[in-house]
Amino acid sequence: MPTRRLAHFLRARHDAACLARDLRVWETPDVVTWPEMLRRQFDSDRAAGRTTARWLDAGHGLIVWEQIVRRDVDLRSVLLPSGLGTSAQQSWELLHAYRIPVRVLHEDASPEVQSFGRWAVEFGRWLEQGGWLDPAQASLTVGAPTGGKPAEFVGFDRWTPAQAAFVARIRDQGARVTVRPVVTEDCTRDAQVVECNDFDAELETAARWAAQSLQERPDERLGLIVPELARMRARARRVLDRVLVPGAAFTGGPAPESTAYELAAARPLLDRPVVSAALGWLAACITPPELSAASMLLRGAHDGAAVSESHARAELDVALRRSGVPRAGLDYLARAAGAARRIWCER
After folding, report:
1. Residue 239 and residue 202: Cα distance in Å, rounded?
2. What is the chain's pLDDT, residue by residue, as a tens digit (347 residues)?
3. What is the 8-class DSSP label of residue 140?
4. CB atoms within 10 A of CB 7
5. Is 303 exposed, middle or buried (0-12, 13-18, 19+ CB in 10 A)?
6. Neighbouring C-beta atoms of residue 65, cutoff 10 Å
7. CB 59 within 8 A of CB 114
8. Strand-strand pairing, 151-154 and 132-133
9. Which terminus of the chain has a smaller tally of CB atoms within 10 A, N or C?
10. Of 153, 169, 134, nearest in space to 3 by CA
């Protein structure tokens, strides 16, 4: 499967088909994504003694890329080299997905490509010395699925050269392989073009079309393609809630994630309150936060003493706002809290 979402859909559709046949017990289909399949085949090869390599997790690989970038003396003037490590890792993955030799990078005169070429050579040397197998290279080395069961690839509307080469290789090794396009219910409807004034009007029109289609055919599955959904997630959700789940407008506050539809773009981890609070406290340990950030941390509800110290923290927050201190580090907060405690004890 290309994505976890499609894998989940196929499992759910298989279960629904079994229930429709009045079955009470059935074999769970073995549906995995492309990266999961490669990792499984690597584990199988290693257990059978066909390889002695070690699997390199993406997080471990990113650390290595960042170290390589930071050691590059030609990039000392770059302010944020950590971002280049992520870009380099993504470029490395694309390089192998389209089977582009590393040596061609040195033929490009642009300084960006030349820098990446140096990093790629150093990263490849590091992989070889440590006996690591990078996931980007796994499709070139892992063996065919074992166990005699046929392999079926579903939903790959566009194959990269590396994926196509892997499928051809395991076929040559005798594996039974079937390739099917994306599963669709009905692709025969004529396309229509509707012009709207702006992006919000497009969302509104698409949501109302979906609501009308679901009212006429409640069992129908629909998909709305929203460009840059990760960035437009909040706007898309507000429109869909208002049209598809009008009761969400009467909750008196932000509605929970609706079960009437599903957004393919997950919420950024930083938007989770507990994660935001944890990162805020960590940042406060390094640099004194601004008064507004310190106030938010004091009044937060995601640390162990938030409930028992809620009243005292509220009083300290008021005192900080009256003091007019632009930045309040943890040391300053501790001294202010100690002073307030002594005053309270004297009273």
Report:
1. 10
2. 567 777 888 888 888 899 999 998 988 888 888 899 999 999 999 998 999 999 999 889 999 998 998 888 776 555 556 678 889 999 999 999 999 998 888 887 788 888 899 999 999 999 999 999 999 999 988 888 776 678 888 888 788 999 999 999 988 888 888 888 655 555 556 678 888 888 889 989 998 998 898 888 888 888 888 888 878 888 888 888 888 877 665 555 445 555 667 777 666 777 777 888 888 878 878 777 777 777 787 778 777 777 777 777 787 777 777 776 666 667 767 776 666 555 444 44
3. G
4. 19
5. middle
6. 25
7. no
8. unpaired
9. C
10. 153
Measure the CA–CA gap between 265 and 231, rounded to whole angstroms: 9
**Helix axes 161-172 and 81-97, enclosed angle (nearest 10):** 40
Q: How far apart are CA 168 and CA 98, in angstroms?
A: 15
Amino acid at 11: R
26: three-class secondary structure by DSSP:
coil
d(CA 204, CA 207): 5
Which helix (H) or strand (E) element contains residue 154? strand 151-154
* pTM exceeds 0.85: no
Helix (H) or strand (E) holding 294: helix 291-298
Bridge partners of 345, per DSSP, are none
Q: How many CB atoms lie within 10 A of CB 203?
A: 22
What would the DSSP string read from start to end of 215-228? HH-TT-------TT
**DSSP secondary structure of 6-25:** HHHHHHHHHHHHHHHTT-S-
Residue 56 per-residue DSSP state: -
Distance (Å, rounded) from C-alpha 329 to C-alpha 291? 9
d(CA 171, CA 232): 42
Enumerate residues 6+ apart whose C-beta is below 8 A from 81: 66, 69, 70, 72, 75
CB-based contacts of 175, cutoff 8 Å, min separation 6 = 144, 145, 150, 151
As a whole number of Å, the CA-based R_g of the chain is: 27
